[in-house]
Amino acid sequence: MEWYTAADKFTEALASSNPTPGGGAAAAQTGAMGCALAMMAVGTTLKRKATPEEDKPFLMQSLNRLASLKNELKNYTKKDGEAYDAFLAVQKLPKDNAGRENAVQDALWQAACVPADAATAAVRALKELDAVKEKVASIIFSDVLCAKYLLQACVRCAVENIRANQAYLKNPDRTEELEKQINTFLKSC
User: Fold this and answer.
1) In whole angstroms, how far apart are CA 112 and each of 20, 21, 142, 166?
2) Neighbours of 148 (CB within 10 A)
3) Could you report the per-residue pLDDT of 94-134, keeping only the tens digit for each?
4) How far apart are CA 95 and CA 140, in angstroms?
5) What is the distance between the alpha carbons of residues 132 and 55, in angstroms, rounded to a whole number?
6) Which of 10, 74, 130, 145 is deepest in the core (most CB within 10 A)?
């Protein structure tokens, strides 16, 4: 399969009238793409003869951390849809079900936590990118900047998905916790 075929499938899934994948999945996938692009820049730098030998261990460690964050973000792409599907399932419980409201609130909380986890991973990737950017070959530095912008987009889109769920949460401790996370996330951008 050509690389663009998979990208096309995800894009078309986003364009469908199905509720998933939605903004949270798009945010996480954007973050994974940011990590992947950063990995390409670091990997390309590692292969260059002009790269100082003393920089290579640091670059290799960074490459490994970025790979781990990329995989984490890819997982959140799927988990976001699962969290929303779980919310839809509890919405179908009979209105007179004694546990319905708690189930709805728990599902909303989980639907807010997944993009918060994705934003956390993207913030860690931004920090990693910031730490390695001076060692990346200047010829490929535009990809470092593009990776940064993708990771920032992940954070900002994840924040919007957190807010969408936060608005319906009734537990003030949970809404306050999310608000603190949102403020931290936005400071990273």
Assistant:
1) 15, 15, 33, 7
2) 19
3) 999 999 999 999 999 999 999 999 999 999 999 999 999 99
4) 57
5) 10
6) 74
Q: What are phi and psi of 61, to 5 degrees?
A: -65, -40
CB 171 within 8 A of CB 61: no
Residue 67: closest CA among 9, 137, 153, 128: 128
DSSP classification of residue 139: G
Q: Count of residues for the chain?
A: 189
Cα–Cα dist 76/30, whole Å = 11
Q: At what angle do helices 100-132 and 141-166 cross, to 10 degrees?
A: 160
| Tokens 């920090």, residue located | 127
Tokens 């949270």 correspond to: 24
Pairwise CA distance, residues 60 & 63, whole Å = 5
CB 21 within 8 A of CB 10: yes
Flag residues of the chain having pLDDT under 70: 1
The token pair that represents 11 in the structure block: 């894009």
